[in-house]
Design brief:
Elements lengths: L7 H16 L5 H8 L6 H13 L3 E6 L2 E6 L3 H30 L5 H29 L7 H19 L4 H13 L11
Antiparallel strand pairs: 1-2
Helix pairs in contact: 1-3, 4-5, 4-6, 5-6, 5-7
C-alpha cells in the first residue's frame, strides 16, 4: 500500500460544510452560504468544497422550486464501497490492457515520456492495489478476497520493470523511476501528538 499525505485543510473545510448541512437540514443554498462565508472560508472556497462533497457523493442536492437544499447522502458507506469497487476494477482492467500494449510501444518513446509513463503507471498500479486492500478490509478483514488481483498487480509491476530493464535508456530511466517510487513508500511513522 502506498502512503499518501492527507490534505488536512481540504478535509477540515469539507467537515465544516458537512456539519453545517447536517445541523441545518432545512436551509437553502444562500442561507448556508451566509452561515459559512466569511466566518469559515471565502465564497469560492465554499463552492469548491461543496463541489468536492457533491463529486464524492457525500452530499446531494434536492431542488424545491428554484431553491437548492443540500442533504447528506443516505447509505453513504454502501455507495462508497460500490464506487471504490467500480473504479478499482475498471482501473485494474485498463492497466492490464495498457501494460500489454506498452510492451511494444515503450521503446519508441523519448526518455522523458518513458519516465513519465513509468511513474504514472506505478502510481496507478499502487492506487489500484490500495483499492483492493480497502475492499478486502471492508468486506472481510480476516480473508484476502482479492488474492488473484493482488497477485496480478505484482505481475503488472514486474512486467513494467521488465520493460524498463530491457529498454536502451534503462540507466537513465530506472534511477529516476526508483526515486519517484521512494516518495510512495512508507515513512517512519511518528505518533500524532
Amino acid at each position: 500500500m502506498t502512503y499518501l499525505e492527507p490534505n488536512s485543510e481540504l478535509y477540515e473545510r469539507e467537515r465544516i460544510v458537512l456539519d453545517c448541512i447536517k445541523n441545518n437540514p432545512n436551509i437553502h443554498h444562500n442561507a448556508l452560504l451566509k452561515i459559512i462565508v466569511p466566518e469559515y472560508m471565502a465564497k469560492t472556497t465554499f463552492e469548491k468544497t461543496r463541489d468536492s462533497l457533491l463529486e464524492k457523493e457525500i452530499v446531494s442536492v434536492q431542488k424545491k422550486g428554484n431553491m437548492k437544499f443540500y442533504v447528506p447522502t443516505l447509505n453513504y458507506a454502501t455507495k462508497f464501497q460500490q464506487h471504490i469497487e467500480r473504479i478499482t476494477n475498471t482501473s485494474f482492467h485498463n492497466l492490464k490492457i495498457y501494460i500489454k500494449k506498452l510492451e511494444t510501444d515503450y521503446q519508441h518513446k523519448d526518455v522523458n515520456e518513458k519516465i513519465t509513463i513509468a511513474n504514472s503507471l506505478l502510481k496507478n498500479i499502487l492506487q489500484t492495489d490500495n483499492g483492493f486492500t480497502l475492499l478486502d478490509s471492508n468486506k472481510n478483514p480476516h480473508k484476502t478476497l482479492y488474492r488473484d488481483e493482488h497477485l496480478e498487480i505484482q505481475q503488472l509491476i514486474h512486467s513494467l520493470f521488465t520493460i524498463i530493464h530491457n529498454d536502451k535508456d534503462h540507466d537513465t530511466i530506472y534511477p529516476t523511476v526508483m526515486s519517484y517510487l521512494s516518495t510512495s513508500m512508507p515513512k517512519d511513522y511518528q505518533e500524532l501528538e
